[in-house]
Amino acid sequence: MIPGARLIILGRxxxxxxxxxxxLSRHYVVPHxxxxxxxxxxxxxxxxxxxxxxxxxEQGRLVSDDLMVGLVDERLGRLDAASRGYILDGFPRTVSQxxxxxxxxxxxxxxxxxxxxxPRDVVLARILARRVCxxxxxxxxxxxxxxxxxxxxxxxxxxMPRDDDTPDAVNRRLxxxxxxxxxxxxxxxxxxxxxxxxxxxxxxxxxxxLTEVIERSR
Length: 218
Ligand code: ADP
Description:
alpha/beta; globular; 49% helix; binds adenosine-5'-diphosphate; Rossmann fold; three-stranded antiparallel sheet
């Protein structure tokens, strides 16, 4: 057990971050805080924030740093994160978000930042096979052998490609990653908090590698 661990998982879109984070959060019983999931929930609920975010997401652009920092600040202040720690997935995505996060967490700093490394051509193929339940957000990978319409095992909702997973939007997001998010590797590398994990291995091996890094960091 690692009570109170505070982690960031970085990596290109489609590197398997989401699935690994869900597994880690169950294993260690710490909240998995995914800004993408939070934004998609706001879109489903049709909040004012959700309506504004939807357009930005569908264009494959980034939601503004101010909005994202406010959202994460509020979430990290809740009791579960404050007491159990957390796994941050999808945040920070820019150096400016990372600096704001350092301020937010000044009293309780992040223990370790893991870069789940998968090359661009591999993630592109993975993202185009990604499917998600419209109602509960469970992720799936299409093999082509699924029955249509595809129904979610968890809640019975419709399983579809994400609205923002069109080839154009995906390529734009991967370009944005190189421009805006890759500099985070240097940002955290300079502070000795960064560990790189090979995300091309089988999912079970990636999970084992992640837990080894996490145990070592405590
Ligand atoms: P992916 O699965 O492509 O990694 P996410 O599910 O993490 O993407 O996020 C989906 C979209 O939500 C992003 O393309 C972006 O528009 C927005 N988003 C999520 N997290 C952030 C963030 N930290 N800063 C800005 N925008 C974000």
